[in-house]
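Backbone-to-sequence.
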């Protein structure tokens, strides 16, 4: 072990890398993997860049006097990211954000009531985690107007870059800006944990980063980190998975309770507090519905061999598609494109797509398939994405998907 230390010194001395040192000695003593592998996967080397320097400068400027708001996505990675960011902000300035915005439904834009809150609460700095606000430049403009000319927006996200020009006092940071890791493999909870750990010790929140990794199906990529931090918190992957399932179940069955669940995640010292909470019942309720829909899928699915596509359309008032499609794509069809189409009876069709092999860019496939439709939107990651269209456009949407996949337009090697 001693012979490896000079290598660590050599790596950390290079300007290209930054290591997270606050908890290194304790973690290193517990870690069963090699030193270099542990360093590479737990204290991710971040190549020095102007983006990281700008993030550092913004974070160092946080003060108790600032009016700070935090907005987040609604899935397991989104809530975990928000909990990590909340705890980091509290450590940085001695108190948490002045406002936490948990929106009514999953979207990549700030809803009108969210923008109004920014104005009413006189927010000066808005931190957004785990959704691609750059996909909706008009939403950025609305938030800027509500906050005034000195208002600052910071987006920490791991979706693709949409090329929107960043207005003054708007800073969008993604893995592409400093890392070679494919962004969908770097969930936002881990990204937030790594970024804020450059400034404060977040070891008490590391289990939350693990929940986000599991939620975005990236446990394999970060397994040494997850194992190490599970040991730190005297828990296991099964319990971390249980927390992820509770968040997903509340998102599906009772999304209005997500704000309350987030408050619990922020305060919890580990997974067991969440597993023993009043929210645990939702995971059991959802499991029964998932099993029922899974059986329906097996009898009603459409297989399109030419497109290497599995298509399934169903009706349900609960937004259950993501919970089932993850199971289907991981267990049954990891090498195919799987698309679930859900009719919730509100005049709209919501859909999710998966391709765990990364051979098809499902985010770009769906974005292109809804282009030009009224009141439509889509986005996400290469292996996992989602969107919504009006019910009248479903036949055209399906035709486009079949055509694009037949032509291999969104395939990648």
């Amino acid at each position: 072990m001693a012979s490896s230390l000079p290598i660590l010194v050599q790596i950390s001395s290079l300007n290209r890398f930054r290591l997270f040192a606050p908890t290194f000695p304790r973690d290193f003593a517990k870690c069963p993997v090699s030193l270099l592998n542990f360093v590479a996967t737990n204290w991710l080397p971040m190549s020095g860049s102007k983006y990281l320097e700008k993030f550092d400068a913004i974070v160092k400027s946080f003060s108790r006097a600032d009016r700070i708001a935090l907005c987040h996505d609604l899935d397991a990675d989104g809530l975990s990211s928000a909990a990590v960011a909340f705890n980091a902000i509290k450590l940085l300035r001695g108190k948490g954000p002045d406002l936490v915005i948990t929106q009514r439904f999953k979207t990549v834009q700030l809803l009108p009531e969210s923008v109004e809150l920014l104005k009413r609460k006189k927010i000066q700095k808005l931190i957004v985690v785990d959704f691609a606000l750059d996909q909706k430049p008009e939403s950025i403009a609305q938030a800027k107007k509500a906050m005034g000319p000195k208002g600052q927006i910071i987006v920490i996200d791991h979706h693709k870059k949409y090329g929107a020009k960043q207005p003054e006092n708007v800073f969008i940071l993604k893995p592409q800006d400093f890392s070679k890791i494919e962004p969908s493999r770097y969930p936002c909870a881990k990204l937030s944990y790594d970024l804020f750990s450059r400034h404060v010790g977040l070891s008490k929140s590391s289990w939350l980063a693990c929940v986000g990794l599991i939620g975005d199906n990236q446990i394999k990529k970060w397994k040494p980190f997850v194992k190490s931090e599970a040991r730190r918190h005297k828990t296991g992957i099964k319990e971390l998975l249980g927390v992820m399932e509770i968040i997903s179940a509340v998102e599906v069955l009772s999304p209005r309770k997500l704000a309350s669940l987030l408050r619990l995640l922020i305060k919890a010292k580990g997974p067991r507090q969440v597993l023993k909470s009043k929210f645990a019942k939702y995971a059991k309720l959802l499991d029964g519905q998932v099993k029922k829909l899974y059986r329906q899928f097996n009898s009603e699915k459409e297989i399109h061999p030419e497109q290497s596509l599995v298509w399934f359309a169903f009706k349900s008032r609960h937004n259950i598609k993501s919970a089932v499609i993850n199971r289907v794509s991981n267990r049954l069809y990891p090498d195919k494109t799987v698309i679930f189409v859900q009719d919730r009876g509100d005049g709209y069709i919501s859909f999710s797509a998966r391709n765990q092999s990364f051979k098809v860019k499902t985010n770009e496939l769906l974005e292109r398939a809804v282009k030009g439709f009224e009141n439509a939107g889509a986005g996400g990651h290469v292996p996992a994405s989602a969107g919504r269209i009006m019910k009248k456009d479903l036949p055209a949407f399906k035709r486009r998907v079949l055509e694009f996949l037949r032509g291999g337009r969104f395939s990648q090697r």
